[in-house]
Queue: 3 jobs
Job 1
Amino acid sequence: MLTEAETRLLGILMMVIMLGMGASLTFKDFAIALRKPQGILVGLLCQYGLMPLIAFSLATALALPPAMAIGLILMGCMPGGTTSNIFTYFSKGTLSLSILMTVCSTLVAIVMVPLTLEIYSSGIEGQWQIPRGNIVQVLAVLLVPTVIGIAIRKLNANVGAVIELVGAVLGVFVILFLIGSWVPRNWRLLLDTGFPVYAGSIGLGLVGFVLGYGLSRLLRQDSRRARTIALETGIQNGPLGVLIVLLSFPGPEQQQVLLIPVLYSLFIVLTSSAVTVWFRGITTREELARDQAKIGSVVTAR
Amino acid sequence: MDTTVHELAPWAKRYPDGIDWQLNAPADRSIPAMVAGAARSYGSQRAFTCVMPNGMYGTLTYDEVDRMSDGFAVYLRERLGLAAGARVAVQSPNSLVTPVAAFGILKAGCVLVNVNPLYTEHEMRHQFNDAGVEALVIVDLFADKLERILKDTGVRHVLVSSVPSFFPPVVRHVIKGIMRWWNRVIPATAMQSTRFEAAVADGMRLQRERAIDVSGYWKHLDHGDLAVLQYTGGTTGVAKGAMLSHGNLLWNVDQIIAMGRAKFEPGKEVVLTALPLYHIFAFTANLLAFYKAGGRNILVPSPRPIQNLQRAIENYRVTWISGVNTLYNALMNEEWFHAFPPKHLKAAIGGGAAMHASVVKRWEQMTGCRLLEGYGLTETSPLVCFQPMSGPPKTDSIGIPAPRTEVRLVDDNGNEVAQGEPGELIVRGPQVMQGYWNQPEETAKSLRNGWFHTGDVAVMDDDLTFRIVDRKKDMIIISGFNVYPNEIEEVIAAHDKVMEAAIVGVPDARTGETVLAYVVKRDPTLTEEELAAHCRSHLTGYKVPSRYIFRDELPKTPIGKILRRDLRKEAVGQQQKQTA
């Protein structure tokens, strides 16, 4: 459970992060991306087609109680997280695609999140349902800074670039903030939590990586783009999920429903880091192989 | 006195429109006078904007450049105690530092030495010692190279600048922080040095305190006084310092502006400067000419990778671009460029090395504006010939001589060749250098009877325009036939699947020399057979390459000229290994 002040702080942090996210792109970048939208469309398919389904399947397979299930399904329906951009950068992925996917999935979230949440949480009892109005409200509030960010970038490149940087840094900070403020207060709850909840929190990300990669390759994206889409798929906007829960549930229920979003946020950082190191190794090997081929062609062209 | 057709200035008659043929001597007696004049005319207008790849930028107005270069001049003369005529070098990629340092040095009555920041320590040491450099402004990125050779040179004062110098504070610190802690490209050094910004501030303070009139340092300078030592020879041998006077450069500035008079609006132009300012092309055309005319320079620190130009082109209404073949080629391959070509371009200028016809055609189709090729050398400040804007679109042509420039084509004995025949291009005009610094033999070889011998072979067509055939030294002789690599490179480059190509000649027992082609593919499906068939259908038998070697990239100079001599060395070396 977070205090009112912390909730408000989280809300403000999210707005600045959204501002920074918008400031990372210009209208021109969108125009260029829309000329060949396959990559983004595949990403959106993974984001809103795959992830909610994975979350739902996991919740069902692990027979999670309603309080946990709603948390997991909510996380499955979230748009991409901003930290995916940082992990993509370190894994030597296609950064421009990652940024575009994160921004696009956030822009369409206002429609897609209520839709997917309604579909997949329809089987959950009333008191654990998240009112649609809440979600639309939160997303609308966050959509505004995103668009303002894009406009700022166009007006003044310096201000835009600095805001982008601030947003990126805050994106990392906010997760640490969440973990640091929630975990110490809920030790007992964590120890009492059973395996299924942990499996769900960790599994959502991992299965997201695997299936995101698989679907992209199936839809004929090259291996580097597929790795980028994999990361983008598995990494959801944890803090956004937390914010929605905070605004939708009162005290004691809030504590329960918050469990999975927070656990997810904690573990996704760990699993993403591991996957990033692995992906980076793959990209480096691919680049080396290309260099070898260069040298090879000189040798054979005698 | 032989009065040939070349000396009767027939070009003025043939191409009268849009060019200021009646060019009078520049009114300014020196570059500092020109700089001061520009500040008076354009004061608060933006002169330079340096743009980073992510769009972050810093800007200086004409007034700011004027004040800061005054300050730097005072610093050089009063604080460092340099005498008039002392050589001061600037070694930096394009940044706001370049104009402040260059103009400051000239205002101090000193001689500017432009140094390539990518030089190795060996090359730096040679240039510093050859020129007798006493003070150096160097970018922090390469300070470690300097540290290693400093004691082997006569450089006594080191000023360190950074790429985002003079940017707004927050942005400057972010960029420097990222460069130092994230990218780790700023080396730590133990060298004794002063920060460039601090030197400028110090000089400005001194100027105020002692009420120094900076014009006292340069008022007496005239056209004949040495302004810049511009080193050349990179593609063909050891670097030599061309001595360019104030007159050389000021004349060439006026000649350049005269050629583009038709579309040029003083005070309104915006030029994209991705080419290095330490190379004579951008130095004279972008830094000096556009400055004199009140234009705005959009500086890009590094054109590699080409994506670095994206924000510069998208965020500013660029009206002129100066570039080389490699740059235009790379730009047109970028989706963000060919999907949304810049809308306000008036014209693009091509130079530095031969422009390929295929590149020019594609550009004009894509952007709807002309790509005008010019020709010149470091030794001629640089402009010699230029395609007239009012002329017919003619690829492969370097156009006509600039106003007040005399051009002749001669054979090995110095006699003029017949009309339409190839001959070595020689130049006479106010832009021709004073000679090579401390190299009387080299000077005597190139400057003969007042004419500068370029070493380039050219032909004059019936419409009185010139075409460069190739460099004399790169010519290949096959079975007694003269073959010019350029011609073959153009043919190969015209193939859709080819990005670029370089032709070299290697010794052959049977024919004397034979042709080798190094090719960079644009489309990976390109095969040797396709290329060979393409060449055979466009070239006579002996010109068709005997072998094609595919590469991912070709060795180039910083300005993008393909280093044929490196490829030739490699090819000959491999050949010797095989026969050994």
Job 2
Amino acid sequence: MSRVPLEEKVLNENDRIAARLRERFLRRQILCLNFISSPGAGKTSLLEGTLERFTAQERVALLTGDIQTDNDARRLARFGFPVKQITTGGACHLDARMIERALADWPLESLDTLLIENVGNLVCPSSYDLGEAAKVVVLSVAEGEDKPLKYPAIFFKAELLVMNKTDLLPYVSFDLEKARAYSRQVHPEIEIIELSCKTGEGFEEWMRWLAGRREMPGRKEGKGSAA
Amino acid sequence: MHELSIATSILEAVRKERRRLNDARITKVGVRIGELAGVDPEALNFSFEILVKGTDLEPLALDIEFLPRRHACSECRHEFTVADYQFDCPACGSQATRCIGGDELELSYLEVEEA
């Protein structure tokens, strides 16, 4: 019996395609964000609110992933920006190949921002690099404040945490302070924005963050990997 | 349950290596998984067994090395394993530490039968 050492990432093939996408985005100075949350935390609502506040001249496009239905794409298409639904047909996450395929017939040169809404799932999407500059995790106050400790991978890899549905705070037992503390325990540098898609409170801060990020569409130092 | 697609990727890599090794008989594949990788070892073992069963790769064992989160102190350079989210440096007490490992999802080795 002999041992052959291997030094390769398990998701080597996915990472290779993601690197290719990232290079394409960077060359064209396109900011690509990957939105991840559990089902129902408000990814689509966050994107709807964002598109609603954009002027028609904004060069933004969206990809939205779901296991079944194109409901989200239809919700998002109302705003007039290009939207494409990726139906995974059972897969619990998007992978880089799906993104590459979806972009194949899209004129990237007309864009400066690509927003990707992942499949609603707090676990699996965190393993798959889509070539994005940053992952944004959305957590709603209708969930448990200990989600960051229970699902550390995504909170560790996300650059920004959007805490949504703050309008529900008076009615739920969610502890905002604890949620912030747990998130920073897992990822001390994580940025946190609290907002309500329903009332619009806090949304300005998110739009400012997004505007700032569009000014520097690349990946930030040390994000997305421990090394 | 993305462990099934992770297991598929591991087996793709094993097949690729087998071709490179002139169809050598591979008996075990070793992987390193960090606690921040978001992969459940038990579910991965289960998926791996299902995918290998009844194929030409059988019998093939999976050896999972589970790695904890590791930090390095920015002041005294001490490197340590993080347990229970205790990030302060155990050597000098500094709070300025940074993550240097724990999100691995890597192939580490193959065990090959000698021809």
Job 3
Amino acid sequence: MNTRFFRAAMILLTMSAAALAGCGAEEPAGKGAVSFTTWGEEYIEKEIPAAVFEDGWSVRFSKFLVVIGDVTIADEAGAEGGRRKETKLFDHVAPGPKKVEDFGDLEAKAWTKVSYEVRPAASDTKLGDGATADDLTMMQMGGHSVYVEGEATKGAEKKTFEWGFSTAIEYADCEGDRDGKPTRGVIVTNGGTDTVELTIHGDHFFYDDLQSPSAVVRFNAIASADADMDGEVTLAELSMKQLVDIDPADGGYGTGAVGDVNDLGAFVTALSQTLGHFRGEGECFAADPK
Amino acid sequence: MRLHRFMQRLGLAACASFSLLGLSLAAGALLGACGAEDTTSSKRVALTTRIVADDGVEAPFTNAFGWSIQLDHASISIGPLYYFDGAPIFSSGLLPRAPRRDALAGFFGVGVAFAHPGHYQPGNAMGQVLAPFLVDLAKGPADLPPGNGVAGIYRSGRFTFGDAAALDGYVVVVEGVATKDAMQRKFRVAAGVEDVLDAYGEPKLDGCAFEGEPDVQEDGTVTVHVKPSVWLDQVEFDGVPESAGSDPISLPTDGDAFRAFTRGLKKGSAVVFTYSAQETM
């Protein structure tokens, strides 16, 4: 009887403890680390194949420069666990993930507010993997945050492009799949390292809508902007192509609630602010930089 | 939450007639069971709703082609309005953000996960006006049917165009005068529901800004600000013939001017919501 009572009491105590833990009771924490990398995926390293494009084009990038920095880790209350304000220039055409920042000695817990920025190269911007000193000088001189060179082909037709953007954007409150589970920010475990990829999506430059999740990837409208027919589509030519003049068969080019986007140059520039992702397909809120 | 995701997978996200407030209360009760903070809040608020044209009625505006435009008729057939706590894309405000996957949003036909490419995620449904309404903005501010909602931060809204039958087969009809130097065009332009469909084939504008991201904690007034200047900003009237008499010229539906107008109608930046708390006597 006493044994039975003791067992029942122990079970109840255990269940109570578990319930309390589930309600946020304190547990002893250790220390761990977070390692940030960045990768442009195969779309940037190799090719965006014709199968991806709605209109049969394919695109190969020869340069895909992005300035990434101000990586910040904070907890739900906003208390920063780490912040690196410096920026680095990466060329995502170079293969493989590239190291951005390591944060060590972080309290083992969920750090739910993680952000990073893409912003114009400054005098203190450092060289990251893939990029050259000449690239850095060019980005600094041009005040660029993103610069892409590439070639689009469709059968015998070919168009080249060299576009530099000076937009600055913060990717905040990032969330992505970690071990198959949607996870806000990072999770630091005792003695462990959470490796996080700041993923750059090169196909976003060619979406035909700024806001709709049903946007598809197209190039016909961009190709048609080559006003002088010299084979290169410049940003200036894109800016002369009014969205209202795009053949509806080449895409809707809707702008959603984004104001003052009336030409393809402004459209592609707006898309340049949507490249940044988190752990592959994960997302962040795009906002003005801190 | 699992039930919600399951229902989303089953395609039941369009069950917009479910009671927002009832669901919110239920969510609050569940959260309260573990002492967690009720982030969705269960407090109900009554929302008086007004609509006003921000420009083009009391004074003319100048569009991108230099035409000064004054409206004397701007009728809209309006459908349901919904308010959310998800921020519009490229929002300058940052904190606090809405939860990504919510038990309420799915019932309003809203997908909330991984919204490529502009990253607009509606988040939680916070309020609504369900009754349709017909209004002529040129006659000044008008009252819309009353709405309701729950307390919390309102960041974005959905504007839907209403029944075309209420407006002789159209959802928007605008008449006015465009003037540039010595040129003058008295025009009329009418758009049907097929002219305002979004990428999903629905007559709605998603992700419209809720100015100031108000923290709504009490009854108040939501004002829908419509900007006809956005509708007509890219309309070049050069190619529109002058009217012979006093009757306006209708913009032909196969012309550039009409296409520019309907592009403007599809811009979410043409609608902005504001909130003001009820004045206490």
